[in-house]
Write a structure and sequence with these properties.
This protein has about 170 residues and is mainly alpha-helical. The protein has one domain. It is built from seven helices and no strands. The protein has helices at about 1-35, 45-60, 60-65, 75-80, 80-115, 130-155, 165-170. Helix 1 packs antiparallel against helix 2 (about 45-60) and helix 5 (about 80-115) packs antiparallel against helix 6. The longest helix has about 35 residues, at about 1-35. The radius of gyration is 20 Å and the shape is elongated. It starts with a helix and ends with a helix. About 25% of the residues are buried.
């Protein structure tokens, strides 16, 4: 049941990222339309940037879980299986630590922007905590995904892509 819930979380984040990409497209198209029709849509370029940033962060966990992140496997393929496992545990532990720090500070940034009533310096005057939520949520789901990967590796249930299979992917 936990596996199903986690997979649904990763898929939901990916769908949210896809919606943000559609939002980026709509803002760009609206900005182009505004240049021709002069309807005075303010901040379309800023909103396109907000949507693009949210899309990037929200897609990170799903990309990790689908083994689509770029990995340098030269060292991993050169060491025996026991050393490979140690390296995997070490790198996943470091990833959990770093993504945890990033998640903490992303949430802290969103909270401080809300607390200080920080607004965008562009002509849209958007409260900055709104677009920062996408980054914070993406960082949180990425942290959960790295913890998931670490636990799976520790239990010996983690699936990894062999380098030959990755080469056939491209």
């Amino acid at each position: 049941m936990l596996r199903s819930t986690l997979n649904k979380l990763y898929d939901a984040a990916a769908w949210a990222a896809a919606l943000m990409m559609v939002g980026t497209l709509l803002m760009v198209l609206l900005g182009m339309l505004d240049r021709y029709v002069s309807m005075n849509f303010r901040g379309t370029d800023m909103y396109a940037g907000y949507c693009m940033a949210a899309a990037g962060f929200l897609a990170l966990a799903h990309t990790l879980k689908k083994n689509e992140h770029i990995r340098v496997t030269l060292l991993l393929n050169a060491v025996p299986p026991k050393a490979k496992r140690v390296l995997e545990l070490w790198s996943l532990s470091a990833a959990v630590l770093l993504s945890g720090l990033f998640c903490f500070y992303a949430i802290k940034l969103s909270y401080q922007s809300w607390d200080f009533n920080d607004i965008s310096t562009g002509n849209d005057a958007t409260p900055l905590w709104l677009p920062q939520i996408g980054m914070a949520l993406g960082a949180l789901v990425l942290l959960i995904a790295f913890v998931d990967e670490l636990v799976l590796e520790f239990l010996g249930q983690r699936l990894t892509v062999d380098s030959e299979e990755a080469l056939h992917n491209e």
